[in-house]
Design a protein that fits this description.
mainly beta; 5 strands; two-stranded antiparallel ribbon; 1 helix; 3-stranded antiparallel beta sheet; rod-shaped
């Protein structure tokens, strides 16, 4: 299930704002599950991900990458 962030259209004092909700696919949340007031979905922030399998990232985490050179022969990358 995707996690979406919502905020109240009129900021009430009895609920936190903004809040996150796990919503089933195709389901649109129109009212706050806590107070019942109208809410709107916030635009998702784009977060570019770093290549977690890059050689530099593997070395930064303290691991080593081995590549197969020949039949049964491996060498450090």
């Amino acid at each position: 299930m995707p996690l979406y962030q919502y905020e109240h259209e009129n900021n009430p004092h009895d609920c936190e704002d903004p809040f996150e909700v796990l919503v089933g696919q195709g389901t649109v949340l129109t009212n706050c599950p806590r107070c019942g007031r109208p809410v709107r979905k916030l635009p998702a922030a784009f977060m570019p991900r770093r290549n977690i399998l890059s050689t530099s990232n593997i070395k930064d985490k303290g691991f080593q990458r081995w590549r197969k050179r020949d039949q049964g022969v491996y060498e450090k990358d």
